[in-house]
Structures
1.
Amino acid sequence: MVSRSRPGTVYLTGAGPGDPELLTLAAARVLSRAGAVFYDRLVSPEILALAHHGAEMIYVGKEGGQQDEVQPRILRQLAAAAWRHAAVVRLKGGDPMVFGRGGEEWAYLAEREVPVVLIPGVSSAISAPGLSGIPLTLRGVARSFAVVTGHEQDGQHENWDAFRSIDTLVILMGVAHRKQIAGALIASGRPANQPAAFVERGSTPRSRTVTSTLGAIARGETDVESPAVWIVGEVVRQHEVLAAMSEELIEAVA
Ligand code: SAH
């Protein structure tokens, strides 16, 4: 094991929503040079293939237990790796600072005087809806959006009333509790016929968009698979419009 006189740099790096083309140039460059790469479940094999072939590849997904239990171990491993390598990449799906624990990891490393550099990524919260023809803001339709977690909520605990006046809601990690959340959103004053969409595996070849309404989701009528970004609001109507237009375009070009 190489012993260093001071710790190397940890690059908290966004991997984007899945498609390797959506990686930043900075992310691709640090990946190709880092001595160790920490990655989790949502990072695609094509992106991992960009790592230096001699790099230590360290999987730190959830399988070893719940994230709250494994997180202290990840933090210790990251700090230790910085003492072995000049550059360590901590790869996260999407952007590290959006439900990616980037803030916690940065603080832990900084307290231990390990230098940290953030490389932002393309968040699924914004890119998955966009790729599916759903803008988060639209002139005359939506002037605001909020990104919210739907994780470990039975819909009763989150104060959905607080989001009543936000035009577009983007819910991450919301597939499992969608029924309860949709019910709570209706109870907060959103109309039951408000359109909603789930974009599964955005930016990957297996991407699928499921459109529905809050009422139908609350009744358990909408089949969805994780990971998916859930969009609630009038902007969802654009999906049909833009998807139809791009199909026409494809036909015209073919
Ligand atoms: N830091 C990530 C979010 C991590 S939370 C980001 O910025 O994108 C994990 C949640 O992100 C999933 O439950 C899902 O809601 C969403 N997600 C991540 N990648 C996705 C993708 N390719 N398509 C759809 N949803 C995705």
2.
Amino acid sequence: MSKVTEEIIITGIPISRGVAVGKAFFFTLSDDDAPEFVVSHDDIDHEISRFQRAVESSREDILRLQKKLKEERIDEGAEILDAHLQIMQDPLLTVAVETEIRHTRKNAEFVFESLIKKYQKRFQSIKDSFFRERFKDIQDISRRVSGYLRQSVRVSLADIPPGSVVIAEDLTASDAAEARGNDVAAFITRSGGATSHAAIVAKAKGIPFVSNANIDPSTFANEDSLLFIDGRTGEIVINPSEETLEKYKTIQDKVDQHFQKMQKARALPAETYDGYHIRLSANLEMVNDLDLIRSYGSHGIGLFRSEYIFLSGEEFPPEDVQYEIYKRIVQKINGMPIVIRTFDVGGDKQLKNQQIPDKGNPFLGCRTLRFLLSERGVFKSQLRAILRAAVDGEVSILFPMVSALSELIQAKELLSEAQEELEAEGLDYVKKIRLGCMIEVPSAAVISDLLARECDFLSIGTNDLVQYSLAVDRGNQALQKYYSPTHPSVIRLIKMVVAEANHHGIPVCVCGEVASDPRFTPLLLGLGVHELSLASRFIPTIKNAVRNTSIVAASQLAEKVLTLSSAEEIMELLTDEYRNNVPEDCFFNC
Ligand code: PEP
Ligand code: MG
């Protein structure tokens, strides 16, 4: 695409609602592209020495290789490597990279690879085949130096210019977790699904997100070009005109006003208009977001995704470190209930150095409880930390991705072992703790009667339940049309689980992304769900949806939904109902 200054409209898939305008910031566009980020003034020297070290390591490699070639009497090869050494030490290259790092404050690999690309263009325009061949040498060197640089880089969205629209091939949960709401105006990716963990974090932070959008740096006239993104519709406008910016402002004002109006509902009870109380709790990923929990009027924390305490780290934190974190949270929420889910690792949430056997699809592999039961030391230290922190509050433990009764039993046995150890060591811990089981796999839904007998509550994780019921990778944007939370099978499974929980007299919560979508609220209530756990910023919206329905109307809606045979029909019905009940919601009705 050529560089143009007129408006370009691209439509992607809406992932996280909200609208924003900002400047493009390209962040790892593909495996072949160097990550691009801004380094702070203090880190410029560090960045330059990183480049110098990479050159030095590459030089040592070449010298070693050259020695080997000489020993094997491959003189021609050794001479080519001489040329490589010369190019690598050529100030035209090294000084240029260093100057450019100082000048642009961009990271070394980005600057280095951009320069190499410039050389490439120049060499390609030369007719003489000798010079054209020399470019291959440069490419070879480039790969070597880049390899060293990329190994030592710690790419982070924590330090980027304010108001950036981050454009990436895909984002990981920890990328999104590191992004600061004030700096990141929006995310645009080429791939990544609506319930990927990056999407969940973006929604929790209120960062608009559109995926499946094909944008590359050549689309932009210059570095200051603006982008307008509408995370409700998936619309992206590059180089927006004054008129579009005006339109953006109007939409933004409307969305803000709606949010403020919703906020007023936060102190009101989450009650249907026929007086039925629904418990609305918050999902928590980043400990820093704890303050939000209270401000949005949550009952407590219905799902703490504990793996986020180390996702951008390299190893599992030791028991004492975890204990301090859990204790701090428990004390900070001051008496509110909290459900700590044990580490959900694997799938799209990996530790940097994690040794998870990753043959095949990680979502169908040694994920979560399977991993924890095979790494009993890791699991036990987490259970011990939670049991100790629970002394200060109302804490429950939730086991994710249970797929068989035996897994729940083994997890409970390990918990008893942890308690016995703490007793023997004379440490303070709770002797009785509420235990919950996540229903995220169809097998668990089908045996929810058996599971319900062995625990104190159930929590339905619809993000995974949809993925595993429909055999659709939740992170794969290309399959999004198959990823349907309104699929009749999913709704029947939810109904089945709720019926079993009720039958065994234990509570059941829904904590997947559908809990934060007000179009689903009457259906879930109608199916008998009494508790929802969701990103705290959506609690007022869901409270409003609860207050705009009655349990009678919700039950009738659920009955009607259960007679429909396709996901599309059900979604249409839920959308129409919501439009009728809450027409003023410009966030979901657009
Ligand atoms: C779910 O699967 O719905 C869930 C809440 O867990 P997570 O999104 O963390 O996999
Ligand atoms: Mg899950």
